[in-house]
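Bumping with the actual sequence this time:
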Amino acid sequence: MPPIKQSTRLGILGGTFNPIHLGHLRGADEAREALHLDGVCFVPVAIPPHKSERIEVPANHRLEFVRLAIENNPAFSISDVELQREGKSYSVETVRHFRRQNPTADLFFIVGLDSFLEITTWKRYKELFSLCHFVALSRPGLSRPQLTDLTPREFWETFRPGENADHWVHGPSGHSTYFLNRPFMDISSSEIRDRIRRGISVRYMMPERVEAYVLERQFYIGS
């Protein structure tokens, strides 16, 4: 893979991208604009630690999904760092990789709110807050609880209010956690896979070149 351009404010968006869709792209761009990021790097997951479903599309094809989806946006880049590692793809190892590659940058780890609310189950999750900022994107219809209502309380009590109700600061590291609403897209990869299996159009749900690549190779059909 080509080297990631050095950025002073770099977003990192991981996922299986099985397949990538317009919601991923729109969420990344909204985070980029809201937080004045220099760019967002998409990181396809090899083996997700928390998902039990089989990923029927090999990693090299999911990498190609992302490449096709972002090729016309100079603010977006791609990394195969998780595909190069053996075993499960742990976020803390990925963020540490980007920290080594960008030692002076501000890193912003972009996740869906549903995933963020399970962060206490992540490997070495406390270390993550010392390595990067967090950006939690809320999906339509998903209400956000108060950060202080989450468990374990002894950990969340190390946060203090930031500039507004959607901004919290991790006291020990000074890194921020931002909650961003993403009202424009309510698309999921599972919905796309299901529609393809049933022979229903997925037009305008994913980039045209990704849709063509998926349909040409008959991914998700009969799986």
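The tokens above came from a reply further down the thread. The radius of gyration is 17 Å.
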